[in-house]
Every structure is written in C-alpha cells, then in structure tokens.
Design goal:
heterotrimer, A alpha/beta, B alpha+beta, C mainly alpha, A: alpha/beta, Rossmann fold, 8-stranded mixed β-sheet, 6-stranded mixed barrel, 34 helices, 16% strand, C: mainly alpha, TorD-like, two-stranded antiparallel ribbon, 3% strand
Chain lengths: 938, 364, 219
C-alpha cells in the first residue's frame, strides 16, 4: 500500500449495510411520481425539467429534452438546463432555508430569531401597514419589485401594492439590466430573438457578455454556429471563458468599447463598405440638423404652428421634404445623404443644415483606427480586421447586461448599434443585438385589468383597449400599434405603483451624498447631480412616478424574493445605516435566510419551485411557456405568495376596520377602500388560488392567440412547456416586431426591416443623434467615447464584475453541491503582474479598497486577467465576507445624470424601461495583501 | 432488463470545443449517485480547467497505469488532495445570534480539506495575458479496456462487465484496501471514509439497462457528449475515433486503453506583443496538447481546421455536421429512451430484482 | 324568438331570465345541441313516448332548420313490439354504467371533471346545486355547447363571439369528439334502432359542426 491515509478499516463484512451492490444502485434509481419543473430566471431561460419524487420527497431531476425541433437545418433546443437547475432538488433542504415565520428578537442583523405563527406574523405586518396608511398614506409603504421566482411569485404582491396605492420600486431600476444604449437607439431594447437565431449568424460578437458563464442552456448554438462556418469574436478586457471557444479574442481596455466600435464604423464608412439602403430607410442618418443650434430641423422651425416632431430629409429631386412619419418606406424619395444645404426658417432667416451622417463623419474624424487604438488598446490592424469582418456578413452581437452597468454603457451600446446600422445587421435572421423582451403571456397582462374572471371580462377589457387605441389613432394616424400601446402603458403607469428607484434612493437611502460627488461622475456636467434631478422633476419629466416624494420617508418595506442587501451598490452605509433606520417594519418574503432576510424584522417563508405551480417569465429568448408543478407540498410552514398576500390583504382589511380606517386617500387623491381589501384581492373569492389564477392567464392567452388553442394548466401539466404562437397585442409583444411561425426561428425587428414599420423613437427611426439639450451640453448627441469616471477615487486598478456560472445571484450560496463546484467562498480575481507587484500570493487574503469602502476576500491569481483589471463575480452574500462587508462596499452605484431626461420622444419612463440605473463596472480600487493573521478566513 | 446483443464496449466522445465548464455533468452525477454519507467530497464526474492541477490535486503526477504488462506504482490520493466536501456554518451565521462576528465559510475540520476542492483552480489556466490559454476537460472513469484497477483489486470486488465493458465494483465485497486508487492513473476512484469502501463512476448502468443515456451525457447542455458502442461502425463514436480520427484518448501512455475520447480544443488566435493577431503560432502550445492527447492531436486539429475552412467558404462537411448534432438524440446511439416514460416505481423494481421493497433480497 | 335555458348549469354572473336573440345559423346550432343535451338528460320512459309520437324527428328538424351546413335527419323506426321497457333496457345496456360520464370511461375521471368545470367557470357558468348533474356528463357537456353557441349569437362584440366560437372548437376537440365515436361503436355492437338513431345523428352533427366552426376560425 502506498503513502496516503491511515490503514483501511476492517472488512466490509463487519459493517452491515455499508457496501452497495449493483442491485442497490438499481434500487436508487426509482421514483413514484414524475412532474414538470423549472427554475429561476436569471439566465433568461425556463428549462423544462422532469422532477422525480419518491416517498413524498423530490429525489432528483433531469431535463425533459422533449422540445420539438423548430426550423429544419437548425439544431433543436434540447436539453437546455444547467447545473443550478440540476441541483434544485438539493436546494429544497438547504441549510439556509426558512421554514417558519420568524421575528427578530435582537437588533436588526443580529441573527436572533423567535418562531411565530402565521397569524401573529400577518397581524404584525397589518398593524404596521395600517398605521402608516393612516399617518402618511400608502406611498410610505414600499415594495421592491423583483425578478426572481416566476410570475406567480410576483403577481400577488404587485396586486396588493396596486390595491393599497403603495409604491413598487422598478425592478430594472434596481438591478440594472437595462440596455440604455439600445433604448436610446431603438426606443426599446426588445431586439430579443429566439436563441436558435444565433445559429444563423455568420459573425458572432460576444461583446459585454460572457455566455459561457451566463447562457449555459443555449451556449451550444454558438459552438454549433462556429462549426457551421460562423466566426466567433470575443471582445472583453480579460480572456474570459467565452473567449476560450472563440476564433478571435479582442483585448479591450475596460470602458473603452465605444472607441473600438466607432473606429470600426469609421473604417466601414471610409472604405465604402456600408449598407446605404439600410441606413437610408432604417436610421436617422439622412435627417437634417441645424448647424446653428445642433438640433434637428423641425417643422415648427419652418412655419408657425408646425409640428414639433416632424423632421426632414433632402430629396434629390424635390429638395427639402418632411420625412414620412407613418412608414420607413421612402417610396420615390431619394434622400441625399451628404449636405450642407440651406433652408429658410419661419422668420425668414436662412440657416445651414447638414445630415446626421455629415455630423457623424465629422465626429468620426477622431476615431481613426490608430487614434482609437491608443484609447482602447486594440491594435489598428485588429480594428480594421473587425470592420472587414462585419461588413457584408450577417452579424449578431450577443450582448448581455454588462454594458449598461458601465457609467457610459449607453455610449458603448449606441456605438455597437451603429456598427450594426452601417452594416445592415438587424431584423434579418442571424443578426441583431440581443436585448430582452417579455412577451406572449397576454393573460398575465390582462389580469390586473379584470374585475372578474372569465372570458367575457377578457373580451370587455380587450374591446376597451381597442376602442382606446382607435381614439388615439385618430389623433395620430401615423402611429404604429406599438406606439399606441406604449401610450396606453404610459397612462396606466402614471396612476400605477411602479416608480423608478432613483428618486427613492436619492431622497431616502443616502445616495444623494454619493451622486453629488463630481469627482466620481462625468466632467461635462455643469452642475451637481442633485440640480439635474430637481430640474428634471420641476420640468415634469417624471410626473406621477417620482414616488415616494422627498417629504415622504418610507416606513414599511417589503422584499419578495429579492435581495437588496447583496445587490445594491453602495454597501452597508446606504441600506443598513441610512435607509433601514427610517423603516418601522422590514418584511422579507423568501425561502432562504438571505442577507436581506438577516436584516429584517419579519421573515415569512415562501414555497419553492417544485412545491407549487408556477410558470417562468415569458422571455422571447425561449418563446416557450415553461410550467413547474407541485411535486410535493411546501416544506414546513412555507406558503405560496398568493396565499401569503391574499391572507395579508384580509388581515389588513380587518385591522383597518378595527381602527376605523375603512377608507383613505392616496397622494393622487384616489380613495382606497381598505375595508374591502380582502375581497378586492381575490374578487370575492372568485380567484380561488394560484393555480386557478395561472389557468386564467393561460386561457386568456390562448384566447388572445398567443398560446395554442385549448391551452390550460391541465394541458401544461401534461405537456410541460409549450411554444408561444404569437407575441401578443400589447406593447411588449409588439415591440419585438416579429411574427411567430412554428417552423422558423424568431428574429426580432423584422417588421421594421421588411414592412418598414417605424421605430418608437422621437424620429421614428433608429436614432443615433439625440438632440436633447442635456445631451448636446454633454457632447453625447452622437455615440462617442468617454473615459469611465473615477468612481471610487484615484486608484490604479479597475474593478469589473459579472455573473458567475455557479449560482443564480445568491441563491446557489445555500446549495452544497453548487458550492462544491467552486471555492465556496468569495473570490477576487487578478492578474499575475498586479499580484506580483503587490506581494499578493494565490489563495491568500486580499483587501480591496477605495474612497467608498473596503472588503476582504481570497484571491485567485491568473494569467487570463488583464493587468490593471480586478474581477469580483457577483452572487456572494455580504455575510460570506468578514464583518459582512461585501464587494458592493467599494461600488458607489453612480447614476448617469442624462438618464434623468424625460418627455423627449422615447426618453420617458415605462415600467422596466428608460430610467436612471446604477453603474458598478469600472470602479477604481487598490488591492493589498492582508497580513497573515489579519482577517479571519480559515 | 440487460442490454441485448453481443458483448460490447460502452464508449463516449467529449467534444472539447463545446465544453464551457458549466459542471452540469458533475452535478447530474452527484445528485443521482453521491449524496449519501461519506460521498459529499466525491465527484465521479468532474470538469477541470487545463492546464491545472485538477482533482485530485496534481493527479497527473501520481503514477499508476501499465507499462507494457507491468503495473506502474501509483500514489493513493489523500483526502486533503481531493479536498472539498465542505460543511458550512449556516446555523451559526444565520440563526446563531452572533451577528457580524461570524461569517459564512467552510468549516475547518483540521484536515486540510478547506484548501482544495474539485474545481479549485478553475479558470486559472496557463500562459500570460493576453495569451492565456485554457480549456475545460470533463473526466470520469474511462471504463478501460485493460482496467489496471481490476487487476489491482485484492478482494475480487472489481470487475469489467461483459455485455458493455463497464468497470464496476461490488461494494459489499470491497475491503477498502484502496489498491485500485493507487493503480488508476486517472485517479477517478474515490474513497468513502464513513463506509470504508472505494467508489467510482458506475456508467449509470441502471439507466443503460433501460436504454437511457448516462446522466452526465444526457444532462449536458452543451450537447457535447456522444454515447455509444465503440465498435459500431456506423455510430458517431467509431467515426470520430477511427474514421476521421479527431477524437483521441487522454494520456494514452498510461496504457489502460481508455474508452472515453476527446475532440481536442481549438483556440482563438494568439496575439503578438503589440496585441495584433498572430496567425502563425497557436495559442495553446502544441506540446501541451500532445502531452495530453498524444502526437495524433496535431493531425486531429488540422482536420478540424480544414473542415471549418471548407464550410466557411460554402462547402459541406459530414464531420462538422456530426459534431454540430442537429438533433439532440443523435448523441446517444441506442440510449434515447426518455426516463420520464419508464415505470420505475420502487415496488416494480424490487420485484424485478427479486427483492422486498425494503431492499433485502428475497430469501435472505 | 329563440330562448334558452340550461339544466344543471347556472349562470354565475349574468341575469337568470330568458334572453332573446333573433334566430340564425348560430342559434340553430345552439338549438341542435339543446336537442341532444335534452335527449341524454331525459328519462328513457319519457323518451320512448316522444319517439313513438314522432317528436324526435320533428324536434330535431325544427332545431336544425337554419343550420349552415348539410345535416341529414333519418327516420326514427320504432320496431314492432318495442315498448318503454325494452327501450329502457337497450338504453341502459348501451348508455348505462358510466358510459355517459367522464368522456366515456376515461382513466382519470377526476382530472376530466376538474378540466371541464374549469372550462365552464371560465365561460361564466357554475355547477348548479338546484338541479345537479355531474360536470362530465355528456348531457352537461352538450348543454355547455348549446350555451357557447347561444352566447356567440347573442354578443355584440365580434371579439367575444370569436372567443366563444374558438371555445366550441376546443371543447369539441378536447371533450366530445374523442368520446362520441366510442359510443357509436358500442351502438354498432347491437344497440336498438332508437338509441342507434340518436348516436348516429349526434356523431354526424358534432363532426360537421366542428368542421364548420374550424373553417369559420380559419383552420
């Protein structure tokens, strides 16, 4: 026997029941029941699993693998899934699971709990809520919106919030998966084709995305495309896991992707490789801009009473012509793309006008490849190579949500979109820039509008919407259905609960102090951030949604399946030290003791997937409705969100009546009927439970034509996941601008390109020139490169981040199996060069710090990270760090002032859409070794 | 139900150009087979970043295998060299009332296991920026044609199954001598310190017997694991290994005749010092790939590159069409049964095995 | 004018009084479903008397007069020597023993009941306590089709009309068309001409009606 462990124990015969025989293994692969299951959202999937149960417990799961092929010549989607879904069965009994209602008995965050009954818990919540309704009104009751847990986890608290008139902080404003640059360009970011469309690309640019980590279920389409003849280019500061499977790795300095993209555009234009027809019909590049003001030439410039939103072209034959508003089809118009021209204004003066393309060419003067190389670190030869690669080929940019998390991420995305615009690369199979769209489950969108269940009410609501759209269409006959749908949504939003969290964070969570630091922001700002914010509010750009106001501090906070303590940039100083002390009651609904739950007053246990019915978000990446069934009842005293919030509604109503608060007015002067909250919530008992609610959504969707005929929960229970048959008639579906065919991949934006449908932007074209005065002041009217602001201070290393492969946010931190696939503890990743210069050794503890804060973690030293770059992948709970000081201690969470612009065409708030968002990429830090004996990690 | 037909050899091909290191295969195996006591640290299927020390730590230096017909002495990996299997102090941190004085971390049991794990050196790789190089290597028992572990076993617990060539162990016979662990050059045998037996990948034989592909293969979202019989001339395994010669064994020099094959990884262009594209020098040093897959790796990569050039200029390639796997079922040879359609109730299986429900064989 | 009433199903939200709609092809379809629903809900003794008086053919002919598709109505031949008792025995033999429940003997009757109840609920109906009949009884399901056709005829909203039309097709596909052929086959195994007549007419009607509705929906 060789060296190794101690002598072996006595023979197996002495230990009865130890060794397994082959038959023992055969007996383990058994089950009594098979149900459908699916899991968490955040890789944008919805993977159909089969869940195998035995003896009343879930034993294991496995992908179903039963998705029918869609298009011939395109690989099918099977099996989808990933290690996180594959380990969900283990998560049901994780050690961080909460199984009973808990009330804290020590200080917040002390980890001292007592178990209470549901009755006690709900009564305590109701008491706090009713007191606040009475004293401050419902705007002081705040819910964080979330994206975890599927629609049935979201709908109940959103419903209660709507009935109360409370505030729901916009999920996308909190997490920032908001492609601001795509929105600035298209008026939306729903260029979200099905993932099999990736197979059809000739060039895949993995840009601001790490699909090997974050797109596990459908990453195979990238490798398959490569085998089909596509070229895969990975553009990133570090040689990341996605670069491993690429043909070309492009090492770009963090935060300089705009320079790279603009230099590619310069080459494409200079060498006449651009798609002239696409540019003419799809973009604002032919539109005329006044050289004196830098603003578009508008009809009201030319005549009194002229339209504010009619723009102009210069037709080769007819000269100055209004650009058509109702179509992108130019008909017989032949716009001249190069000026200048002279026009006479209403007051008789003559001004020079140029095209946006003229301005763009001028602007690109400083983006010769050699100039850009000095900025972005990509050699000029590579820039030219990339430009030649993308011209004339089907190009798809697989962007994730990394871009918008840079302070100037919008500029980077706009520049990337420009590359696609000049090469005609969206709205055609195998092209585009991947965004995000939730569409198809129209029944879910209808739900909040129905006063009773059933098909008649559905028809009544839809007929009502049709009538409203018809009225609006009379006022603007050139508007597309998407634009009208957006208008309706805006109307609903102005009286709804959704609020961009920027105002809440500024007024109540202490971010004013951070955001007003000019040295951490952009030098082109001419006044402090707070002045811009107040200006925007005063101008009414956020009318109706800047809630709660500055004079209404929040008093009750609910979080349902979301974890702000981990996610919020700004660290303990903001949430724990500034916001939390203002709150009378913090109520967390979750299935695990997350970092936020640790800080709560009450933790209410939620049922997990496999213990309840649910459907995954209807994302167009999949275009499938994935159903999850209840394999077992909820563990312990866990309850579904529907049960929790319907009971809470009743309890609040009882409490309100008991204190004489049958009614109250909200800040919009709408009367709220507290006494009826219970019956209003479940429509007098007609909404008999979450399964019935889900069935209603599904039937309404089938009725609306977005799901196959006869769809129901019963059908889902049998078939698991079904492909949508349409994207729906509401704005989110219309914004994808594509048909669904059962034998084709779904490519977004085809209507714009094939049917010449205008975009929902100010100019009704893909818009690269933003002529808002704030953008002009900032020099960002065109996509441009700007250095990342020195967020965090003057430090030599740049901190970037991203999702890991190991966990969906912090959920996997409770799963032993997932923890075993990495180091099971927070990790800082840095280059060999920077580590050596600092005497930092692999596997040892380091301290990462800047002027905002500091944290400690183990370091991984590797040659794959760019010198000057430090990476911390998110997902680690703060309580996995010493003193609970996690990576967000060094991230100020700066917000870009330009995103406060409103009432400018497409720059206006719609839920989940355009709003200021927190940046955390390219924060500046220093890293130092922690001396041995310092810190407490073992 | 046992597999029909003549004696065969189960084989797999892993296409390393599709592996993204997600560990779905590792977790699939663990959730099915290694959740019992003493199995927490065991990863019968594991994926490591190469170059790297892998699991167990520095296994490639631990010896074992055959040199001609003589076993090569090998090291028995220690518990610390596997690492992992951590317990965490959830109770203390979340419910123990210690507040910020305690934070969640692996519990130190004093056995060195907190300083290594199954995937400790993930994404470290080799080379220096921007010419870092790495790829992912999924490993499991190779169910070798000349299993040195079977020869080394003193108790006769280990055997190679005739019908499909998979190498198994009757753990009720195993004495825990662990000579198999010394002998296996791939170090894919683990030890159960609670039950005193060695354990390793069972090729999911209960699934194979029902026509269901092994869990690692079937659950792989990368669609990169081909499963079949090594000798089936029409199957993709045979064609990739013997016809196109793009699928190669790992460390063939260990002499055990592994039946797991790998399509070696391509890599993006290397970059010059000024970061411009170097079209001449490969990013992954050829000698490194040769050290893993032998000298035939160069021809295999050339074949891949030639075929990819062909399709890029508009031609067709049967090889690449095979590697694309247009229909997921095409990966699994005869193992395309959907487990959800099977009746594997404990009662039925017990009857099938001649057992009572509680597990004892009837008549015992 | 055409009026409708339902036994066994209650309107859960709307008024319970009779509703009047001008007669047309859709009310004709509703009337034919009402005829069949009534037949399967009527006691055999009463049924036989009506047959003997020629009321089956008369009733069906009148109901079907405005049907928008071809529907042949054969003669009802009361065999010599047949009486209520022999008819009742025949009725029981072919249609008794649960043959009219749960889709004609589906394995999971509980699931079928839950499914059809949810259908009724979604379209505004609830099971009636006053005159209960199992939700999955063929008569109840035919009554439901009668109701759906009537609502289609009665609503001013084209959207809602389409919803009801779609529901007819889906309900026929999911809960009726797989059932009726089985009943007809059992009739073929020696049912008398009276039960046989009804089953044949029913089978012909639901098949033709489904084709008509599908065509109106565009497939």
């Amino acid at each position: 026997m060789g060296e190794g462990d101690a002598a072996p124990p006595a023979s197996a015969g002495d230990r009865p029941g130890t060794g397994a025989t082959a038959d023992d293994y055969r007996s383990r692969w058994t089950w009594e029941r098979v149900t459908w299951g699916t899991h968490c959202l955040n890789c944008l999937a919805g993977c159909p699993y089969r869940v195998f149960s035995r003896d009343g417990e879930v034993a294991f799961e496995e992908q179903a693998g039963t998705i029918d092929p869609v298009a011939s010549g395109v690989p099918d989607m099977n099996p989808l899934g990933c290690q996180k879904g594959g380990a969900w069965s283990a998560q049901l009994s994780s050690e961080d699971r909460v199984l009973h209602p808990l009330r804290r008995v020590g200080e917040r965050g002390s980890g001292k709990w007592e178990q209470i009954t549901w009755e006690e818990a709900l009564a305590e919540v109701a008491e706090a809520v009713v007191a606040v309704l009475d004293e401050d009104g419902p705007e002081a009751v705040v819910f964080e919106e979330s994206v975890e847990g599927g629609l049935l986890a979201q709908a109940p608290f959103l419903r209660l919030a709507a009935l109360l008139g409370a505030v729901t902080l916009d999920a996308n404003g909190l997490v920032n998966d908001l492609p601001t640059g795509q929105h600035l360009t298209f008026g939306k970011f729903s260029c979200a084709s099905t993932v099999d469309d990736t197979f059809l690309a000739d060039v895949l640019l993995l840009w601001h995305s790490n699909p090997a980590y974050t797109s596990i279920p459908y990453h195979h389409f990238i490798s398959e495309a490569r085998y089909r003849g596509a070229q895969v280019v990975a553009i990133a500061p570090d040689y990341n896991a996605s670069a491993v499977g690429s043909d070309l790795y492009v090492p770009v300095r963090p935060g300089t992707d705009a320079a790279l993209a603009l230099a590619m555009c310069r080459v494409v234009l200079d060498e006449d490789l651009w798609d002239r027809q696409f540019v003419l019909t799809q973009t604002d590049l032919p539109l005329l801009v006044r050289s004196d003001t830098g603003r578009y030439l508008r009809q009201r410039d030319l005549r009194a009473g002229g339209d504010e939103e009619t723009f102009h072209l210069w037709d080769r034959a007819g000269g100055l012509t209004a650009a058509p508003r109702g179509t992108l089809d130019l008909g017989t118009l032949d716009p001249v793309l190069e000026g200048p021209f002279t026009v006479t204004l209403a007051d008789g003066t003559e001004v020079e006008v140029v095209t946006v393309l003229d301005l763009l060419r001028r602007h690109l003067g400083v983006y010769a490849p050699e100039d850009a190389a000095a900025i972005c670190g990509v050699p000029a030869s590579t820039i030219r190579r990339l430009a030649h690669l993308v011209a004339g080929r089907r190009v798809k940019i697989l962007e994730g949500f990394n871009g918008p998390k840079y302070f100037h991420g919008d500029l980077m995305e706009r520049s990337m979109c420009l590359v696609l615009a000049l090469t005609g690369n969206w709205g055609r199979p195998g092209t585009g820039i991947q965004g995000l769209a939730l569409a198809g489950l129209d029944g879910y969108l209808l739900f909040s509008m129905k006063t009773r269940p059933g098909v008649e009410e559905t028809a009544r609501v839809l007929d009502g919407i049709d009538q409203a759209m018809a009225q609006m269409r009379k006022r603007d006959p050139d508007a597309t259905d998407e634009m009208l749908g957006n208008q309706l949504l805006a109307l609903a939003t102005s009286s709804g609960t959704a609020a961009p969290p920027v105002f809440f964070n500024y007024h109540h969570a202490g971010y004013d102090e951070t955001w007003n630091r000019p040295e951490w922001s952009d030098p082109t700002m001419t006044k402090p951030f707070g002045d811009y914010l107040r200006d925007a509010l005063r101008r009414g750009w956020w009318g109706g949604v800047a809630r709660p106001g500055a004079s209404t501090p929040p008093r009750v906070l609910f979080t349902v399946g979301t974890n702000p303590m981990r996610r919020a940039r700004g660290g303990r100083a903001k949430l724990v030290d500034t916001l939390w002390p203002k709150l009378d009651k913090v109520v967390v609904v979750d299935f695990r003791m997350s970092a936020t739950a640790l800080q709560a007053d009450l933790v209410l246990p939620a049922a997990m997937q496999y213990e309840r019915v649910n459907v995954q978000y209807p994302i167009t990446h999949m275009l499938r409705l994935a159903f999850s069934d209840a394999a077992t009842p909820p563990r312990g005293e866990a309850r579904t969100e529907w049960e929790i919030f319907s009971a809470l509604a009743r309890t609040i109503a009882e409490r309100a009546v008991a204190v004489g608060l049958d009614e109250y007015d909200d800040a919009r002067r709408q009367t709220r009927h507290a006494a009826r909250l219970g019956e209003d919530f479940d429509l007098g008992g007609q909404l008999s439970g979450e399964e019935m609610v889900l069935d209603e959504w599904v039937r309404d969707s089938a009725d609306a034509g977005t799901l196959p005929p006869g769809s129901s929960v019963e059908r889902l229970r049998r078939d698991g996941s079904i492909r949508f048959t349409g994207l729906g008639t509401f704005a989110p579906g219309l914004s994808v601008a594509a048909d669904v065919r059962d034998d084709e991949v779904m490519t977004a934006f085809r209507w714009h390109v094939e049917q010449h449908l205008p975009y929902p932007t100010l100019t009704r074209r893909a818009q690269f020139y933003i002529d808002h005065p704030w953008f002009l002041e900032a020099g960002e009217q065109l996509p441009t490169h700007k250095e990342p602001p020195r967020m965090g201070g003057e430090y030599p290393l740049v901190l970037t981040s991203g999702h890991s492969r190991w966990t969906v946010h912090s959920i996997g931190m409770g799963n032993r199996h997932l923890l075993g696939t990495h180091r099971g503890r927070p990790l800082v990743v840095m280059s060999e060069e920077d580590a050596a210069a600092r005497g930092v050794a692999e596997g040892e503890k380091v301290r990462v710090s800047n002027d905002h804060g500091a944290f400690e973690a183990m370091v991984r030293v590797t040659g794959r990270v760019r010198p000057g770059q430090v990476i911390v992948y998110n997902g680690f709970e703060p309580h996995m760090f010493r003193r609970w000081e996690g990576a967000n201690e060094v991230e100020p969470g700066m917000v870009k002032w330009l995103h406060l612009v409103g009432k400018y065409g497409h720059l206006r708030y719609l839920p989940f859409g355009w709003q200021p968002v927190p940046a955390d990429r390219a924060v500046f830090v220093e890293v130092a070794a922690v001396p041995a004996g310092g810190g407490v990690d073992r | 139900m046992t597999q029909q037909g003549a004696a065969g050899q189960l084989a797999m091909v892993f296409d390393l150009n599709k592996c993204m290191g997600c560990q779905t295969c590792s977790v699939a195996c663990k959730v099915l087979w290694t959740r019992e006591e003493g199995e927490e640290h065991q990863w019968w299927m594991s994926v490591n970043t190469q170059p790297g020390l892998g699991t167990p730590k520095a296994w490639e230096d631990m010896g074992g295998g055959w040199r001609d017909d003589t076993p090569v002495p090998g090291h028995q990996p220690t518990r610390a060299e596997f690492g992992g299997g951590w317990d965490f102090n959830y109770q203390e941190v979340l419910f123990g009332g210690r507040g910020r004085d305690a934070h969640l971390q692996p519990v130190d049991r004093g056995d060195g296991t907190t300083r290594w794990g199954m995937n400790w050196d993930e994404d470290q790789g080799g080379g220096t920026y921007p010419n870092s190089y790495y790829f992912y290597l999924p490993r499991l028992c190779n169910h070798c044609t000349r299993p040195v572990c079977v020869s080394a076993c003193p108790s006769g617990a280990m055997y190679k199954r005739h019908e499909d060539g998979i190498v198994l162990r009757d753990e009720s016979v195993c004495q825990g001598a662990r000579f198999c662990m010394e002998a296996c050059p791939y170090k894919k045998i683990s030890f159960n310190y609670v039950r005193g037996v060695s354990q390793h990948c069972i090729a999911c034989f209960p699934r194979l017997e029902e026509g269901v592909a092994p869990a690692c293969a079937r659950q792989c979202p990368g669609r990169l694991v081909f499963v079949g019989d090594a000798a089936d001339p029409a199957g993709p395994i045979h064609r990739l290994v013997h016809e196109w010669k793009v699928a190669l064994p790992l460390h063939e020099e260990y002499g055990t005749g592994p039946n797991i094959f790998y399509v070696p990884p391509l890599s993006p262009y290397r970059l010059h010092d000024d970061f411009s594209v170097d079209e001449e020098t490969p990013r992954i040093p050829p000698e490194y790939l040769e050290s893993l897959f032998g000298p035939r790796v160069h021809a295999a990569l050339d074949t891949l590159r030639d075929e990819m050039a062909t399709v890029r200029s508009g031609g067709t390639s049967e090889l690449l069409d095979t590697l694309i796997v247009y229909r997921w079922h095409d990966l699994f040879g005869p193992y395309t049964v959907d487990p959800a359609g099977l009746d594997r109730s404990p009662e039925r299986v017990a009857v099938q095995l001649g057992r009572t429900r509680a597990g004892a064989t009837e008549g015992e | 004018m055409f009026t409708y009433s339902l036994q066994g199903l209650e309107l859960s939200a709307a008024e319970a009084g009779p509703i009047e709609v001008e007669e047309n092809e859709t009310t004709a379809r509703s009337a034919v479903y009402q005829f069949f629903g009534g037949w399967f809900a009527t006691a055999p003794a009463d049924l036989f008397d009506q047959a003997a008086e020629g009321k089956w053919v008369a009733g069906l002919t009148e109901a079907a007069s405005l049907l928008p598709f071809g529907f042949a109505i054969g003669p009802v031949e009361v065999p010599a020597g047949a009486d209520a008792a022999s008819f009742a025995a025949d009725h029981e033999r072919v249609l008794g023993g649960g043959a009219l429940l749960g889709g004609g003997g589906r394995a999971d009757r509980e699931a079928e009941i839950a499914a059809v109840r949810r259908e009724y609920e979604y379209f505004g109906l609830a099971a009636s306590d006053a005159a209960p009949r199992p939700a999955d009884h063929l008569a109840t399901e035919l009554d439901f089709l009668q109701y759906l056709c009537f609502r289609e005829a009665a609503t001013p909203s084209p959207r809602l009309a389409t919803s009801f039309r779609r529901a007819q097709r889906d309900f026929l596909d999911a809960h009726v068309l797989d059932w009726v052929p089985g009943l007809v086959a059992s009739a073929g195994r020696g049912a008398g001409p009276l039960v046989g007549w009804t089953l044949d007419q029913l089978a012909a009607f639901v098949s033709a009606d489904r084709a008509y509705v599908a065509e109106r929906l565009g497939g």
